[in-house]
Amino acid sequence: MMPIHAPMPGRLAVCSWSLQARDQHELIERLVRTGIRNVQLALDPLRETPAAWDGIESLLARNNITVISGMLGCVGEDYTTLESIKRTGGIAPDATWAENLANFREGAAIASRLGLKLVTFHAGFLPRKTDAGFPVMKERLETLASLFAERKIALGLETGQETAGELAELMRELADGKNNNIGVNFDPGNMILYGKGDPVAALRALAPWLRQIHIKDARHAKTPGAWGEEVPAGRGDVDWAHFFETLRELGYGGDFAIEREAGMQRVEDIREGREFLGKFV
């Protein structure tokens, strides 16, 4: 194990969707129980059920809670199997692109109202540069980049549904087109869940574009082609000491958001993760 030095800079937050809150009051109550006062906020509920989230800005302020970034989902995503999410994930499907674009436009307005500087999302399984679908994906990402750039908001593409090399290839293409407000929201657990490579090696490959880190842990799939198993931070196959030492070498100074998308005791698991991460963040 590599030596652990002083904790890294950057805020430690909780992904709001991990807490499965039905409204703003339930979100605040569960967030306070985690012992963390920073949140990455899912923006779709504010669009879909505005009455349940009306006044969220003032409620967050009264409880001394900071929103570090936003998150947007896409229409019709089916996570039942790796094959089903490959077909339905992100902005790749033609059938849902128009609706996704409209939702992202509203999401950008909400993020701007909240004063956010970063919004993350899954683009879907990315085609290689030589694939027929690559120009369409690139064009759609450029459209979203422009939409958010108008409001001075950066985008972060979630890792995991492709290898680091494939994502880096796309990022270089986008940079050539001067779409520099698109970066990477790095999730080491996703790299394991999707079977897309070693998280630390992927971290190095994507270093130029790091915008935010998700703290999520997982165990490798027992059967090829199946999902890995998500577990609380510190119980899985992510080598966290090596991971944070690498971040330190890379000079990363951004934020960290604990994400827990499985299990029936989310608050307890996040508290466990927070305690585990104390020596790092």
UniProtKB/TrEMBL annotation:
It comes from the Bacteria. Pfam families: AP_endonuc_2. Residues 30-278 form the Xylose isomerase-like TIM barrel domain. Transmembrane segments: none annotated. Gene3D superfamilies: Divalent-metal-dependent TIM barrel enzymes. This is Xylose isomerase-like TIM barrel domain-containing protein.
